[in-house]
Known about the structure:
Uridine Diphospho-n-acetylenolpyruvylglucosamine Reductase, domain 2, Enolase-like, domain 1, 4-stranded mixed sheet, 10 helices, disordered N terminus
Amino acid sequence: MDERQHLPLLRLSSDRRxxxxxxxxxxxxRDFSYAQATSRADAIALAALPDTMVLAGGTELxxxxxxxxVEPARIVDITRIPGMEGVKALPNGGxxxxxxxxxxxxxxxxxxxASYPVLSEAILKSASAQIRNLATVGGNPLQxxxxxxxxxxxxTPCNKRAPGSGCGALHGFxxxxxxxxxxxxxxxxxxxxxxxxxxxxxxxxxxEDKNGGRRLAARKFNVLPGEDPTAHSVxxxxxxxxxxxxxxxxxxxxxxxxxxxxxxxxxxxxAAVALDLEGDVIRRARIALGSVAMQPWRLxxxxxxxxxxxxxxxxxEAAVDAGFADARPxxxxxxxxxxxxxxxxxxxxxxxxx
Length: 354
């Protein structure tokens, strides 16, 4: 698609009513051009243009533009590209989920429900039914942090919003922030639920760009602040997620989300567990925590210690405790260590009964 074939320039505006010292009146968004790609080649060519962003479900992008996090010059709509939806079995026993598959469609698919209950549960707990009917599997991992300093209406110290400005949450409001993998430059967490399940399933994101494409491990898709405090993910500009591939089934798996209210809310802590059992003995365990770091956090030491342990034995708790040896609370979130520990233990029980 030639850029000259773009639809007419669109203009968005919103009435932003502010309180106190904040401004009042109308805040007009930046003009942008809009194109609807009809093939992957179109989408890749257009997405690689400077100052361009991709629109799928739009449940996050529209929020970003509304509050001024991003102001792209171009938006490329990829929702009409054929062949990027659906769930299909792979010859190796795994599955491939098209990036444009709606969250609800993935969660309710018989193959996902039977073989990967942890993913189905994580998706169903991720958002309201209305949002799940619009949001896509490929777009969900691209959510950005829910830190109030990042999403503030007025400028605040936030290295992800304004590189080099500092981290307001480090000594500010941080009760829901990280206990693993944070630095003084950023203490935020990634808020999404499905990526936690995908991390515990050792899933890969399949991407395409002008150079071909990559397989990106779901567990390392988001960037820790020690690597780059300004980055959200390892995805390059112009690189599109086209699918997600998961290996062999994990029927003994479960997801637990702890939040302030059962209705639509982001997790305070979440846990995903997949077990390989022989009778009541754990042969292999995979455990990932959500909302505790800038990426799903695998409890690798716990996984190692659980191998060979009998369900219900005291060694289970000891193994989970070992996974928190490197946990570092902030000034207001020490409670999250105990909460995450108990969530991991409870989810092991749920997975064993699945």
